[in-house]
Amino acid sequence: MQDIGKVRLRVPSTIKAGEPVRVRALVIHPMERIERDAKGQVIQKKYNYIDKVLVTYLGKQVAAFDTTQSVSENPFFSFAFRATGAGPLKVTFLDTAGGKYEGTADIKLA
Amino acid sequence: MIPRLLAAALLLSGCAAARSDAPAATVAAWSTRAVPEARGDVKPLPDGRKEAVRYPGWTKEDFSAFRTYGYGDARPEPAVQKAEPPAGIAGDAKRGRALFLSRAKGPCTGCHLVPGADVWPAGNVGPDLSAIGGRGLTDAYLYAQIHDPRVTFPKTSMPPWGATGALGSGEIADIVAYLQTLTGPIAAETDVDRNPATRRRPTGFGDNLDPTNNPAVVLAEGAERLWAERGAAGKSCADCHEGGVDRAMRGVATRYPRFVKGYARVMSLEDLLTVHGPERTGRALPMESDDNVHLATRIKMASNGLPFAVDVESPEARAALARGEASFHRRVGQRNHACADCHTPERGANKFLGGRWLADVRDGLTRHFPTWRTSQNQIWDMRKRMQWCMTPLGMNMLPADAVEYAELELFLTSFDHGKPLSVPGIRH
Q1: pTM for the whole thing?
Q2: How far is A47 from chain B (nearest CA, A)?
Q3: Which residues of B touch A30 (CB under 8 A)?
């Protein structure tokens, strides 16, 4: 997986001030998890999954999501926020191995 | 040098004499470079029966008895049979209805609408049979019609159910008994989607090039690793094709499938990767392997937005197109269907087959392939799609890299000539 941490953000091309906007975010991440055998013993202790997603808009944190290892490989998140002004929307993914991956979308008001 | 040339010439002539599956001198012999489940093999079982090798989850039924697209398959269509209802057997209308709806049989509802809220989804390729029993048709006529409709309608798309053994005589008698109970009147529809005539057309799945929407984009981008990774021969794709996939491969996919002189056959991009990849890099890229499909998708993405410009003029291309067109109209398999039955507007195109909307060949069927299939959670290239099309028709698959498929793909792609690529697509 060469692209680990590559973030893709999609926002609508036309946004009106004050209206809710749906954001689609995808991050390339293996989401490695702990595996157990039939007896419940841990057989693979190496794990690395995204456990936090932070959304920053106009320099202010507007949302934080706590995620667990049950989320799929290359996880996709979709959420809505209210666009109040033009500026950057930043989504930050934090994983359990200390990785920090960011993607920014420029919110332009029509 | 001379003895070697002579030996090669002898070998070639030997091949030509032994080979009976080629229709023309331009189609060279080929051994498949597909993964085992994509080769169309038939495996004998210990009890003497045979089992077809197909992809995981696909039927294993062997359809060796029915003709295929193989150029070497000279068998004719099943002979037309005029049948009489079995004497002394009264059909059971209840069993007939179950057979009519059974997905293990036809289902007849794939093409014909009948009354009932449980009839869903019905198609409209064939006539609406909701009141067929009120038309005063005799049992003998209906029986003969289901057994082999070609008796009355030589150009019909309907399979000869009895003549190929797909339905037994008792089963046909049951269906006839059921149809005769449909005397009307037709109840008013309560659900617009039940009746294919009023059913809403399927809409798409959003932007197929958006990686947050189409998982195939992410898979294909993952193949950039293969592009740059050196194979056993110490070379990578990137070593010869410089400047990154997008620059090096821009426009390449618009020219495929095409006649490749070096291999003396029509090849799609996927076909070419199976031989060109191992020859230059030492990496195996068998047909229908994930590596092949993902890399081919990534290479095609470099031509997105550019119009298809396949060669349809050279003598080789014209010969291949003629054979591809013949395959398109060739009736094959237990169902005795042709591609044209479903994909030309005179027949099934722009109608429903069950719940599926049949695409029209003139609109182009290929420019979004390889495509993500939401129903399969997999990315499929054109060949796997063809193999899937032909399996319910009761035909054994050809190898995924068979020239018959390549030339059929070229014929289909010729309708996309001048239209822009949009790869990977996203479909149900």
Answers
A1: 0.87
A2: 21
A3: none
